[in-house]
């Protein structure tokens, strides 16, 4: 491994080769990301933020998804039915926009698929909202 030296300027300041700056920035980013278990991100959420897992169904493209009630009090039978009816509506061509990405009204719920970058980042394929209730269709984690 080649070690670069710091150079002292006549003013007494040290200079760092440009390539080394990137390494320093990455090291700082990695060390600042490592925090104690007491950090804000690690604090447990309140009981109100409980997510209910309801089982599995399939999207209009026949992809398996896990159905979760993210917000509100929605029976799992209702959540699964809404997601199945949403998939059926897309297959029937009831979704506006190219590829069926637009919102669809299903049994009083508004359902919409997420854009591919969101799906890849979060695993969330779609959501259905009715008032303060929210249902998510989430891709299973790769095995």
Question: Overview of this structure, please?
Answer:
Strand 7 (124-130) and strand 8 form a beta hairpin. The protein has helices at 18-33, 76-91, 116-122, and strands at 7-8, 14-15, 52-58, 64-71, 104-106, 109-113, 124-130, 133-138. The protein has 2 domains: 7-41, no CATH class; 47-138, no CATH class. The protein has 143 residues and is an alpha+beta fold. The chain has 3 helices and 8 strands. The longest helix is centred in the first third of the chain and has 16 residues, at 18-33.
Structure, briefly:
With 143 residues, this protein is α+β, with helices and mostly antiparallel strands.
N-to-C CA distance: 38 Å
Tell the overall outline.
globular
Average pLDDT works out at: 74
Please give the largest β-sheet: 6 strands, antiparallel
Helix content: 25-40%
Major sheet strand order: 3-4-8-7-6-5
Structural class: alpha+beta
Radius of gyration: 24 Å
Determine the strand fraction and express it as a percent band.
25-35%
Q: Which ranges are low-confidence, i.e. pLDDT below 50, for 5 or more consecutive residues?
A: 1-9, 11-47
Element order: H for helix, E for strand: EEHEEHEEHEE
Give the helix tally.
Answer: 3
Extended strand count: 8
The total tally of domains equals 2
Tags for this model:
143 residues, alpha+beta, 2 domains, two-stranded antiparallel ribbon, 8 strands, globular, disordered N terminus
List the helices and strands and how they pair.
Blueprint: E1 7-8, E2 14-15, H1 18-33, E3 52-58, E4 64-71, H2 76-91, E5 104-106, E6 109-113, H3 116-122, E7 124-130, E8 133-138
Antiparallel strand pairs: 1-2, 3-4, 4-8, 5-6, 6-7, 7-8
């Amino acid at each position: 491994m080649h070690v670069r030296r710091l150079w002292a300027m006549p003013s007494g300041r040290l200079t760092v080769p440009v390539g080394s700056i990137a390494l320093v920035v990455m090291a700082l980013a990695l060390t600042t990301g490592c925090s104690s278990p007491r950090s804000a991100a690690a604090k447990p959420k309140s009981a109100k933020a409980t997510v209910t897992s309801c089982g599995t169904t399939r999207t209009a493209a026949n992809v398996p998804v896990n159905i979760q009630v993210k917000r509100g009090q929605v029976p799992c039978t209702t959540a699964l039915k809404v997601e199945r009816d949403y998939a059926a509506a897309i297959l029937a061509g009831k979704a506006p926009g190219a590829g069926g990405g637009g919102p669809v009204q299903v049994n009083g719920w508004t359902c919409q698929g997420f854009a591919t970058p969101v799906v890849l980042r979060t695993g969330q394929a779609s959501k259905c909202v009715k008032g303060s209730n929210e249902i998510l269709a989430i891709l299973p984690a790769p095995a």
